[in-house]
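Weekly sync, protein design subgroup
Attendees: M.S., D.O., the rotation student, P.L. (late)

Item 1: inverse folding check
M.S. brought a backbone from last month's batch and wanted to see whether the design step gives back something sensible before we order anything. D.O. pointed out we never logged the input encoding, so this time it goes straight into the notes. Structure tokens as presented (390 positions):
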């Protein structure tokens, strides 16, 4: 794995700076570097880290990663073909309309970063940066390393906003908190989870449970902050209360061993945000991933959108299309999916909505498959990106 280069070697100018080495940023860097462009990829984390994420790779995500040349088979993810929707003691199950994969962001992001580096991108790790000036070029102040002047900036900083380029969602984020933890579960529960992703609805939020690589199980949940406070304001008490009130999770996680030193957490995520650039915004700053759109994790495909945005932006750039054209295109591709996912999410938060959702899907399990299709990046948009990519 490539390590951080000495600070004195940081270039002072670059054709393209990709700020952020997650799926969107690393994916864009792969496309640009393979096309022979000068790409400086700045990643804030100095080493591999876990990220709060459901870690479910959709068919679209599969296709994009393979198109980039990443060997997914070597990463050891767990194949997923079925979905279970759980509320209380009621369970509705159906086959997914595509084959998915459970794979941790810890492993996937590192593999894609390494692939970007081997494709020709100049990867610098442990680098935090801010924008100091936008005047034709974009000047970045890289912490303890100096100033870089970029002809074009690909902004892929995920949930981390730059002060000068904040997202400013139209509506304030809900007061929600998310947690993620990997567990080792007993062999019976590991077999029960084979090839399934489970969505568990409860009174104050929802959780996702599935296998990832190496026999690990990923629990990712979103809950009202008020409930967290009522449970004592900490992860152990919240988990204890969740297991007490949710028999399905109690069965799955009985005797489970936590595999991370502490849970990852996040709060006040601006679900539903879609970037709508003003007419006077510069044409050389492309927003990617969560910087251009944030889809609810309930049934949305955040990883697919991240890769779609990175590959679409890179392809637009290579074809001489400015950021304004790209932002109009990506908004067209993802706005409806984000809106539909928001409807499902709000239904899951409303008690009559949860009962209706369970009853509807119990009578018509295939409706879950339809919902899965309607909350993914459209096939036509995926095909367009594949055709644009060099």
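Designed sequence read out in the meeting:
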């Amino acid at each position: 794995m490539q390590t951080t280069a000495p600070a004195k070697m940081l270039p002072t100018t670059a054709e393209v700076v990709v700020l952020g080495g997650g799926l969107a940023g690393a994916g864009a860097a792969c496309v640009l570097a393979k096309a022979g462009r000068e790409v400086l990829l700045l990643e804030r984390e100095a080493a591999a880290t876990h990220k709060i994420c459901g870690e479910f790779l959709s068919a679209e995500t599969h296709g994009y990663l393979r198109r980039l040349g990443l060997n997914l088979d070597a990463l050891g993810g767990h194949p997923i073909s079925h979905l279970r929707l759980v509320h209380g003691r009621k369970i509705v199950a159906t086959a997914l309309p595509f084959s998915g994969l459970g794979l941790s962001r810890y492993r996937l992001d590192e593999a894609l970063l390494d692939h970007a580096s081997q494709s020709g991108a100049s990867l610098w790790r442990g680098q935090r940066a801010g924008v100091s000036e936008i005047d034709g070029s974009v000047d970045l102040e890289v912490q303890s390393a100096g100033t870089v002047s970029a002809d074009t900036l690909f902004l892929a900083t995920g949930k981390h906003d730059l002060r000068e380029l904040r997202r400013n969602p139209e509506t304030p984020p809900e007061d929600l908190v998310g947690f993620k933890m990997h567990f080792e579960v007993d062999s019976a529960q590991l077999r029960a989870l084979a090839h399934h992703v489970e969505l568990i609805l409860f009174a104050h939020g929802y959780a996702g449970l599935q296998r990832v690589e190496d026999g690990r199980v990923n629990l990712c949940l979103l809950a009202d902050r008020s409930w967290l406070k009522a449970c004592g304001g900490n992860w152990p008490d919240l988990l204890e209360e969740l297991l007490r009130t949710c028999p399905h999770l109690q069965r799955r996680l009985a005797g489970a061993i936590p595999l991370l030193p502490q849970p990852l957490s996040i709060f006040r995520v601006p679900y539903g945000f879609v970037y709508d650039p003003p007419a006077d915004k510069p044409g050389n700053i492309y927003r990617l991933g969560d910087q251009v759109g944030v889809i609810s994790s309930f049934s949305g495909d955040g990883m697919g959108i991240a890769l779609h945005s990175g590959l679409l932006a890179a392809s637009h750039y290579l074809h001489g299309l400015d950021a304004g054209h790209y932002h109009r295109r990506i908004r067209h591709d993802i706005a409806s999916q984000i809106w539909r996912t928001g409807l499902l999410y709000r239904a899951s938060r409303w008690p009559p909505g949860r009962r209706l959702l369970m009853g509807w899907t119990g009578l018509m399990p295939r409706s879950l498959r339809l919902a899965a299709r309607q909350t993914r990046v459209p096939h036509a948009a995926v095909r367009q990106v594949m055709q644009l990519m060099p």
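Discussion: Residues 323-349 form the longest helix (27 residues). Residues 3 and 20 are 16 Å apart (CA to CA).
Action: P.L. to compare against the previous round before Friday.
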